[in-house]
Design a protein that fits this description.
This protein has three domains: 90 residues, Pseudouridine synthase, CATH 3.30.2350.10; 133 residues, Pseudouridine synthase (2-Layer Sandwich); 55 residues, Archaeosine Trna-guanine Transglycosylase, Chain: A, domain 4 (Roll). It is built from nine helices and 19 strands. A hairpin with a 7-residue loop joins strand 2 and strand 3. This is tRNA pseudouridine synthase B. It catalyses: uridine(55) in tRNA = pseudouridine(55) in tRNA.
Length: 298
């Protein structure tokens, strides 16, 4: 089998297992796809499971644009304990009884964290501060603050409220969150716990959707070992971005990097397809013309 056959350009939707880093998944996929041109759209913490979008060959150029799309998570928030990492992998730093927290109070706290909000990311994160990862500064014992940044929580709903059998003073909330890129679910758990006066952290996190790619279409690494399922780049682009079909002359001009007259395109990147159905580029409308933001014709 040739290298091109082993590594077609496209996306692989992986159901990431817990305990493995996103980079670890990329390393496995490089071996399976037979190419080093593999990347991912949007990191998942090692504790988290679920949808990790992997790009192979030319589709790696799609990843930066896919990373900006809406995401959906299923999570469990534990009230009554705070941790240094805002999740179950970190040391408990404070405790406070949560058994008396009412559903009304929970709903009010969640409402305050829904919509456009200013969120301070978790300190144990990959965000860079003066060129150094935030988690590195934490490990070195540095005292610092991260600035708040705007994110949007489109919906934040409680599916179930439970008392852990082995911890009657604590309260577990099973929740579903739909949010913009850059939102930290760990930080939502932390901030909800702080608002309720109990502290809070994340004990489980599963990403169920990235843009149009849902968990129902994801495959485990074991399944991919048996059969590498790659979503062709044409199908991937058509699913994720508004589609614009052009004629042969327009396709030729775009292939040479020429800006052409554009109709009223949808906001953000639009996927351009030639008359033969080939995916040519991602473009944005600028002053009535199509500006190429990423080319795929070659």
């Amino acid at each position: 089998m040739t290298r091109a056959q082993q590594a077609p350009s496209g996306l692989v939707i992986v159901d990431k297992p817990g305990g493995l880093t996103s980079h670890g998944v990329v390393s496995r996929m490089r071996r399976l796809a037979g190419t080093r041109r593999v990347g991912h759209a949007g990191t998942l913490d090692p504790m988290a499971t679920g949808v990790l979008v992997i790009g192979v060959e030319k589709a790696t150029r799609l990843l930066g644009h896919l990373a900006l799309t809406e995401k959906e998570y299923a999570a469990t928030i534990r009230l009554g304990q705070s941790t240094v990492t805002d999740d179950a992998e970190g040391e408990v730093t404070a405790t406070a009884p949560a058994a008396g927290v009412t559903r009304q109070a929970v709903d009010a706290g969640i409402a305050a964290l829904t919509g456009p909000i200013q969120q301070v990311p978790s300190k144990v994160s990959a965000i860079k501060v003066n060129g150094v990862r935030s988690y590195t500064r934490v490990r070195e014992g540095e005292d610092f603050e991260l600035p708040a940044r705007p994110v949007t929580v489109h919906s934040f709903t409680v599916r179930e409220v439970r008392t852990p059998q082995d911890a009657p003073d604590l309260l577990d909330l099973d929740v579903t969150v739909v949010c913009s890129s850059g939102t930290y679910i760990r930080a939502l758990a932390r901030d909800l716990g702080a608002a309720l006066g109990t502290g809070g952290h994340l004990t489980a996190l599963r990403r169920t959707r990235v843009g149009p790619y849902g968990i129902e279409g994801a495959r485990t690494l074991e399944q991919l070992e048996e059969s590498l399922a790659v979503l062709p780049i044409e199908d991937a682009a058509a699913a994720a971005f508004p589609r614009w079909d052009v004629d042969a002359d327009q396709a030729r001009l775009l292939g040479h990097g020429v800006r052409i007259e554009a109709p009223a395109l949808a906001g953000g990147p639009n996927a351009v397809f030639g008359p033969d159905g080939r995916f040519l580029a991602l473009v944005e409308e600028k002053g009535g013309q199509a500006k190429i933001v990423a080319g795929f014709a070659s």
